[in-house]
Write a structure and sequence with these properties.
This protein is an alpha/beta fold and 490 residues long. It folds into 3 domains: 70 residues, Up-down Bundle (PLP-dependent transferase-like); 254 residues, 3-Layer(aba) Sandwich (Aspartate Aminotransferase, domain 2); 127 residues, Aspartate Aminotransferase, domain 1 (Alpha-Beta Complex), CATH 3.90.1150.170. Helices cover 43% and strands 12% of the residues.
Length: 490
């Protein structure tokens, strides 16, 4: 038995990969719903019955086993009835490139481990910075938006400390981050990890639809200063996770600049607008940010993970550097990106984006993102016309928030139905929708990131939602039950 990939196993590797991709392709061709509907108990049993301490079964058998163990019960993001979270179907050239990444196993922390890989990533960083409007910006690929936001807040903290004398013990407890309640949870998580105070993140009022109010931001910045505290960063969001709205970046930049505060734009969701042929204007002002998060594995249709943090001033990245002789010797002028990254070992995730851009072109990627935004607009109109559904605001991107309102139910009962409907659909495997809370009330959420999903596909999901809600409401009425308080069961 040959265990490792090398010159002597090249033919065996090709045969194995051919068989594996054939198995996966068969699943893609046959999948008819996003999840099998297997219960957690059934899946636990499948996993737990596998012997991990005995003799190996051989490579071919182990791969075949994955068909029934994993592929049978995977969640399929390409299925049109998957409309739950910010997961996209992936571009074919990117999937093919994943085979290259795994086989060569490049790590792009130092040049001597990656050579041309480092140069490809650097070119894509420059390309993205140029799309943002940074000119001579810089950045590095990351594992996702959470890491990118953490990295940005680290850089903002160090930049702010340097501007206030660098003395940590007296300044750190006074630092504040200003964001809206709709900002990504990773902003609060970053504050915790960076040792800021428990009340470091201040929620700036929004316009009633989830977008930061620039006038309220200016007032909050004044209040922070007057309280003897220090605004470390303002976080604007270009595509909030739930509402899918975009903060008015240019006006936010005006307020941040007036107070000398680091502006970070979290464009993890909305970064597809950088290549949109029709909607780039929605993020005008992003070039004025000090740092930007982009998630290519959302709106550029890349496999997880493919993300980056970009900075307008290359020197800002130096705040996160740490010297290690074995990685970046002093005499070495090579571009070792470990100086820029929070990670050391780091996968060459830039390559699949490179291949996708080369294969499809940037405009085509933007057109695909435009298509899901167009679909969301059509779905908004569809829900607004339906007497059994209630639209909860309108997105600027591709999320759809709504409630189902069966005849004879009041608002309290409708709220209680949200989690139960979601659970019924998930348990059936026929459709996956998400649940969230907006202005204190639960609602259902569709996240449309599949450019091949049609309005008819979404109508079918909405029909399932309405049928489930009507059945649940009817069952509760027949049994004399109150829907209130049942949300925790789901």
């Amino acid at each position: 038995m040959h265990e490792l990939l090398n010159r002597s196993t090249a033919t065996e590797y090709a045969d194995l990969l051919d068989a594996t991709t054939g198995m996966i392709a068969t699943r893609f061709a046959s999948v008819r719903q996003p999840f099998s509907g297997a219960s957690r108990e059934e899946l636990h049993a499948l996993v737990d019955q596998t012997d991990l301490d005995g003799d190996g079964v051989g490579t071919e058998a182990a791969i075949r086993e994955l068909d029934g163990l994993f592929l049978e019960h995977a969640v399929w993001f390409h299925d049109p009835a998957y409309v739950a979270h910010l997961n996209c179907p992936v571009a074919l050239p990117a999937v093919a490139t994943e085979a290259v990444l795994a086989a060569v196993n490049t790590s792009v922390d130092t040049y001597d481990q990656s050579t041309v890989g480092t140069l490809i990533e650097r070119r894509l960083v420059d390309w993205t910075a140029d799309r943002i409007g940074f000119g001579r910006g810089d950045g590095v690929f990351t594992s996702g938006g959470t890491q990118s936001n953490l990295h940005a807040m680290l850089l903002a903290r160090e930049w702010t400390l340097a501007r206030h004398g660098g003395e940590r013990s007296g300044i750190l407890p006074r630092l504040n981050i200003l964001a809206t309640a709709s900002s990504h949870f990773s902003v609060d998580k970053a504050a915790l990890m960076l040792g800021l105070s428990d009340d470091a993140v201040i929620a700036v009022p929004d316009d009633g639809e989830g977008r930061m109010d620039p006038i309220a931001l200016a007032a909050t910045l004044d209040a922070v200063r007057d309280a003897g505290r220090i605004a470390m960063a303002v976080v604007a969001t270009a595509g909030t996770t739930d509402r899918g709205v975009i903060d008015p970046v240019a006006r936010i930049a005006d307020a941040a600049d007036a107070h000398g505060v680091w502006l970070h734009v979290d464009a993890a969701y909305g970064c597809g607008l950088l290549v949109s042929p029709t909607r780039r204007r929605l993020i005008d002002g992003i070039e004025r940010a000090r740092s930007v998060t982009v998630d290519f594995h959302k709106s550029f249709f890349q496999p997880v993970s493919s993300s980056a943090i970009l900075v307008r001033e290359p020197r800002d990245l130096a705040a996160g550097a740490w010297h290690a002789d074995y990685l970046n010797p002093r005499e070495n002028a090579e571009p070792n990106q470990v100086d820029k990254s929070l990670q050391t070992t780091r996968r060459f995730d830039a390559l699949k984006l490179w291949t996708t851009i080369r294969a499809l072109g940037a405009d085509r990627i933007g057109e695909l993102f435009d298509r899901v935004i167009d679909l969301a607009a059509d779905v908004h109109d569809e829900i607004a016309r339906d007497p059994e559904l209630e639209l909860v605001g309108r997105s600027q991107l591709s999320t759809v928030l709504f409630r189902v309102i069966p005849e004879g139910t009041d608002a309290v009962a409708q709220d209680a139905l949200v989690a139960r409907v979601r659970r019924v659909l998930f348990d059936s495997g026929r459709a996956l929708v998400a649940k969230t809370v907006i202005d204190g009330r639960p609602c259902l959420k569709l996240t449309l990131l599949n450019p091949e999903t049609t309005l008819e596909d979404v109508r079918a999901v909405l029909a399932l939602v309405k049928d489930a809600a009507a059945a649940l409401a009817g069952m509760s009425q027949d049994l004399g039950e109150d829907l209130v308080g049942t949300e925790a069961l789901a």
